[in-house]
Design goal:
202 residues, mainly alpha
Length: 202
């Protein structure tokens, strides 16, 4: 797989005439294609496992909330793509199973869980986002825009889970718990390194 990605990267760098930008060996394309392959195959594995466990609905909403927030808050990388792939598949599949199992039992406390989860997500986004790697520094203006976008994402999901209970989302505790789980999980991933495990993708 690694050799295929490297060959494709060199081809794209050469054909796209990006040699000066990407480097002669297409390092930029290698990184982008590796990241794409890791995420796409991880999502495929998560969907398959969730289908087998009959937790697809919860897992889909966890992934939607998680990744929509991660786009703007960023994150830190694992030491390698394989470790990142395994961790992503394990965590999101497990969370989907837990959300499906626990939602009916937590239905009476869903308003409290929702409020606490949204407050925590907003706190993390406002105080910590965006998180970047050492080699990638953003300007103050770009950081401000990313932070505002992250807050907007949380407000979007908050609107969906807080509108009247007659809607399809708020009427289903599994979906509500899944959305809050996705937001909280991503928020935890941007806390200082000493207080949580390192995340994988930016």
């Amino acid at each position: 797989m690694d050799s295929i990605i490297k060959r494709l990267s060199r081809y794209l760098a050469r054909e796209g005439n990006f040699a000066q930008i990407a480097g002669n060996n297409g390092e930029v394309f290698t990184y982008a294609l590796t990241l794409l392959a890791v995420n796409m195959t991880a999502l495929g594995a998560i969907a398959l496992l969730a289908w087998l466990l009959d937790t697809l609905k919860a897992t889909i909403f966890i992934c939607l909330a998680f990744y929509s927030l991660r786009i703007f808050t960023g994150g830190r990388h694992q030491s390698g793509p394989v470790k990142c792939w395994l961790l992503t598949v394990f965590i999101l599949t497990t969370l989907g199973y837990l959300a499906t199992t626990l939602a009916p039992r937590a239905a009476h406390y869903m308003n409290l869980i929702t409020a606490l989860g949204l407050v925590f997500a907003l706190f993390a986004a406002i105080t910590r986002a965006p998180v970047t790697i050492a080699s990638k520094k953003f300007t103050t203006e770009k950081r401000r825009k990313l932070k505002m976008a992250a807050v907007a994402v949380i407000i979007f999901w908050a609107t969906l889970v807080l509108i009247p209970a007659s809607t399809i989302i708020t009427a289903d505790p599994v979906i509500v718990l899944a959305i809050i789980t996705g937001l909280v999980t991503q928020s935890i991933s941007i806390l200082p390194p000493g207080s949580r495990d390192r995340g994988c993708n930016e």
